[in-house]
Amino acid sequence: MKMKFKRTGAALLACAMLFGTVPPYAGALFGTAITANAAVAGKGTEDSPYIVTTYDELKGIFDMKYTDWAGDVYVKLGKDIISEDKLNDNDLRLYNNSNIGIVSVHLDLAGHKLARYAKTDDEDMFYIGGGCTLYIDDSVGGGVIESSIDSGEQLSKMFYLGENGALVINDGTFKSVRPVGFNCRERVIYCNQPSAYLDIQGGVFSSDSDTPMYVNNANYIYIYGGTFIQKAKKCYGIIINDYGVRLYIDNCKIIGEGVSTRLKCGSWDLSKVISTLAEVTVDGTVLERWNLGEEISGNEIVIRSPKVINRVNIMIAEPKAGQTVSYLADTNDPDRVSAWGVSKGIRLRGYVRAWLEGDTVLNGDKVNKFEAGNTYTAKFSIMTEQEGDTFSDDLKVTVNGKPVENLKIDSKSESASFSITYDLKKQKGDVTGDGKINTSDVTKVAAHVKGKKLLTKEQQALADIDGNGKVTITDLTRIAAHVKGKKMIV
């Protein structure tokens, strides 16, 4: 079972009453908005995040004075941002030294790359402390943070968790790379503060020179997902030497690329900190719970519990008039139909089982094209990819964000089926009905206007752009302008 705090006002009030303090991840519940540099687009809210396109803009948001203010700041990358610099104090530092303001910065990579390659006195790319929280997500997919810092010291970090700092990572790829010509160690996550809070929900973490995740001490450590890749010899994939209140590990993978990797949690038996529902495999061999011990080593360590999937969104390229049905044919090849569903990082097998035009099933026996004016139904099937995963009884499915109402889940809850209907309305100006307005339509309308070859009543309705009930030179001119890209018909 996934154990996790609900970050509610009641829970925070209870913490304040019991311990006289507010947890570092509490910023979401207090305070109002704060204003960034006027040059940055957006309002910094969840609905209108700041859109940053330079490293200086991003640093400016981290450098805002959070002395007596509390709340959430939302930031999204608007493009790839790469800083190659020799500047000191150019790290992204989220810190409040007044212990009054509690700030949460939500950073969405949005499919972009954020990188810093620097020769500097800075030893970290990010520093989080003083009661502040950094959330990192990737709403689009493919987002990357990469750091390579030559500080002159033997150790550099992408993320350093300081006193009362909190880091929550939901998604993204994080790479620590050793600087060329400098024999230092680069870690992705490093923490040596008993008051820190670390929550890993997903993501890929790799270091080419050291342990990707190294925790000497922290108060709360939750690893609910993620892949940790170790490339250097004689290191660990994850090492946790000490913790205060809670340590929980589940649904993660630790990989040694060409080297042996290890998972170690101080002197504790790993069976005490790994989910009781999880199956632990090392290089494909399942370990017994009683045989976990204090350290696990191998080339690939997988810790996984069965998942119950509550929500799925299917992304599909919707049919368009003029396209052949084979463009989205009945097939179990999801790459052809772009019908993968994703729920909290879980990839599902899925496909369009069949296309129907009315009640007629369209298949590969003949060439079928989607035609404007017709209604088409796609019948879907989705299955869990991992054995043991199931769909919940209240599963919610959307296709391109639109809810599905006719959902059927099989008796074992391992697969589901549903359909969605598309009404391909005819477009004004598309006289030929091929889904496009082009020179063929201009030729047909011109012939009608000249009286050489009259259009059918249905075609005349499509050619009557101005809606006066007649097809004239005015309509012909409008269609020709659309084809030339001068004035589009909407």
From TrEMBL:
Keywords: Signal. Residues 424-490 form the Dockerin domain. It comes from Ruminococcus albus. The lineage of its organism: Bacteria, Bacillati, Bacillota, Clostridia, Eubacteriales. Gene3D superfamilies: Dockerin domain (1.10.1330.10). It holds the Pfam family Dockerin_1. One of its GO terms (biological process) is polysaccharide catabolic process. Coiled coil: none annotated. Residues 1-26 form the signal peptide. GO terms for molecular function: hydrolase activity, hydrolyzing O-glycosyl compounds. This is Dockerin domain-containing protein.
